[in-house]
Structures
1.
Amino acid sequence: MKPRVGFIGLGVIGAPMAGRLLEQGFPLLVWNRTPSRADSLVARGAHRAATPRELASAADLVITMVTDGAALREVVERADGLAAGLAAGKVHCDMSTIDPATARNLTDFYAARNAHFLHAPVLGNWRAAQEGRLLIFAGGADRAVEQCQPVFDALGKKVWRWSRPEQATCVKLACNLLLGGLMELLAESLLLASRAGIPPRTMLEIFAESALHSPMVQSKGETIAHRKFTPPSFYLRHMRKDLDLALAAAQELGAHTPATRAVRDAFAAAEHQRAELDYSAVFEWLEEQSPAPAS
Ligand SMILES: NC(=O)c1ccc[n+]([C@@H]2O[C@H](COP(=O)([O-])OP(=O)(O)OC[C@H]3O[C@@H](n4cnc5c(N)ncnc54)[C@H](OP(=O)(O)O)[C@@H]3O)[C@@H](O)[C@H]2O)c1
């Protein structure tokens, strides 16, 4: 029998993940800070919990998909939070992109209550979530991973495992560092070409025929070509957050990452007016910074 899953955080990627679990036959409880975001899942058969505590007491295991470590700690530690409802032996698996320290601290926090914390961040967008094709990086005790395995099988196409949660966290940050860097350089490349009168479409055609071909370059290149930065598949403010997290982790681990700093600064500047757009909107910011030379 499938475990009863409690799901918290029904944003751009959390909602399709929860929807996928429902579609795959998991009994589902949901809670979201803004309650209306749970309405469509409730209409499809999910049960609405009044508080995270109620959700944790009724579920066999809890999944969270919230903005960052601060949001996660709030959901856990508030008076009617997860910690107040999660019984000994149960697992809280966080799949958000958070900082390594929060992953470490929550592991100790739950262990002191004889419960388990697993950090299992994901790579992939809302469509991959909807279709069960996410890549899952699971960090934590084997027993906790085993309890979450049915959920991972439904959500993911492949799972990698590490014993320490912060290793999984760092794998995710290393992936997003590359994603942010690729996005920034793709945007700069398309901008340079467009200044020479070459449209993005032509550049994408060239990339597609070359060793530069990649699904990310093609799909985000199309987003830029159409200037379709909303609705976002990944908020620009989240990419800046992840680059900050990657820089902090690199500093802690003694890794020299100068280009990540430059990319982070570009996203931070772009965020002033474009926080709620897709992260590919960094292209618009670059354009704004590039007045055409006087002819
Ligand atoms: N989008 C992607 O493609 C993608 C891919 C991989 C990983 N991620 C990661 O997944 C996480 C969620 O991303 P998303 O794109 O779904 O973001 P999002 O649309 O901004 O959703 C964030 C969710 O967190 C909730 N939240 C924020 N602060 C909270 C708080 N203090 N207490 C309770 N709930 C809080 C929000 O509730 P409200 O509805 O009330 O605001 C919302 O449900 C992030 O860590 C992101 O980096 C995203």
2.
Amino acid sequence: MKSVSGLAAIVRAIEGRAVVSAAAKATQHRFLQAALYSSISSAKSRCFSLDGLADHFGHSTRSAAHGVGGTMPFSVAASSLAEDVQAKEPPCSKKFLPNDVVLYQYEACPFCNKVKAFLDYYDIPYKVVEVNPISKKEIKWSDYKKVPILVVDGEQMVDSSVIIDKLFQKIHPEISLDSVPDKDEDRKWRGWVDNHLVHVLSPNIYRSPSEALESFDYITTHGNFSLTERIIAKYTGAAAMYFVSKKLKKKHNITDERVALYEAAETWVDALKGREFLGGCKPNLADLAVFGVLRPIRHLKSGRDMVEHTHIGDWYTRLESSVGESCRIKA
Ligand SMILES: N[C@@H](CCC(=O)N[C@@H](CS)C(=O)NCC(=O)O)C(=O)O
């Protein structure tokens, strides 16, 4: 029944009646998982340096591995990076050895992708349970009704930032999050991701009918939809979100969504102040958060435009290389 009402809300939204209704808001929210995920095939660079937060949050000199204007072929950049930037945390085996990590997610949700970027970077294998955004039957067992939910050896963790903090503490029990160098900068930018960057994404990926369709093509292909839901959701969802995204633009005072996306990308590049990563020679949690939410849109038109029209491409490529391949394992 829920799925019927959810899809009905989309249809109402297309008719222009429901974008302000509670039902449509709920549906809109469900489809707002919709930053899109691209599979990353990157060479995995390993970190040979020792762990420790001073290192983790430390600063470094710039690597010679930068491409020019993001145009350096990735393979070249990746091999240079492997030599010049020891940006990958060592596998967690010595520090944190969970037996069973399960992520309840929407494949395209930016918050879920933040958590995945963290797990991938720290080489923590995880299973994924794709939640049906309409019925949510996969998370009926939980009182928490959003994703991501991470279950680590039976312990439920919710809210992406809280999950990441908890995991970080498990990996680095010797370090207090309150006493890290550059803690304020890291916190500031992680807050910027949650309070600003994620709000710029939806108006961009649903900006035009063709971009909305491109996005929903991804969502319905990778998400957990029944065949009927998939067919209906692709077209009605794209149409609904095209209109809803205009409302979101207003709500977040965005005049031109592409300009806002480019500005956000340049704001982030400025924050780097010439460093390889915000964390210096290695990504910190803010680097991973920005990368995580951008990864789903990177190969959509909005992400391609962003890389073409801003200076974020080099940093993105470094992050892609540092985070490496997905640690997702078959459930
Ligand atoms: N603050 C939370 C936000 C999580 C969130 O809003 N998730 C969305 C998906 S992107 C969600 O589950 N919305 C509820 C729904 O789909 O019904 C976090 O960082 O994890």
